[in-house]
Write the structure tokens for this entry.
Amino acid sequence: MTVTVGSDLDRTVDSAAEYLLSLQQPGGWWVGELESNVTMTAQWLFLLEFLHLRDEATTRRVANELLARQRADGLWSIYWEGEPDLPATLESYAALRLAGLDADDPRLAEARRFVEERGGIGGARLFTRMWLALVGLWDWDEIPEIPPELVLFPPWSPLSAYAFACWARQTMVALSVVRHYKPVHRIPAKRACHELNLGPQKRQLSLFPRFRPGRNRAVRYAERWLIDRQELDGSWGGIQPPWVWSIVALVCRGHGPESPYVRRALDGWKRFLVEDGDRLRPEACQSPVWDTGLALLGLRAAEVSADEPALQRAADWLVSE
């Protein structure tokens, strides 16, 4: 058989461009699922538990998703066919225990061994320990403090929250409120992974004095600061970390399910949930701007004319964004 490389490659590129054009949304953009790692899925279950909103149907579907993402060796990674990852494995293990799997379930045996060898919860990253503190599996006093007073400093100050990127600063301000209140919703003992609480590897020391005369003002200001930055779609920055922690921060400040800010945040988050048969997972973010920009670059590289109406619609949409 004779293969003409140039012709075959050209046909493949043309077919790919044609397929990509077929995926364009009527409004001119492209969007695909922005796949998150399993920590986001586990954290969704922790948040629902903290908010007293977890139901058995959601729990089952989240558990199915976590088990479907498990590596052949019983551990979890943060990307496809990646190496075993401690936070991903620990958070998945804890979420599956919350979902009803027993500590001696064979599906969790290797994960338990892996986490124990690395110090248990105390050996995990800070975010993992904060999530587990929220559901009573770790001590908030072992979490370093983030002073809410930082939000009072002006942008030019070296200690200002504005020294961080938008999504990072919103996460930090929300966490400063949460760490101040140290909220706990203890999950039932039979569903809690206390077997992985092997104690802290080393005690965290606070660098800030316990007497804080401006703390109440700072916390009130931080609450207002977060409310003022909530997007119309209910999010903070359109990304998971500031979104979920801002919900927790507002709950700490007395906002219940009837709060318009909490209600809008939870309603908006529903749009980030991916239904996959009897599996359920969240997207950490959604990416139509990225996807559209990349699609345009690819189509132009495939020599699709800039005058093509589909590309014109995409460009108009990008400019509007």
Remarks:
- The chain has a mean pLDDT of 94.
- The CA atoms of residues 147 and 212 lie 10 Å apart.
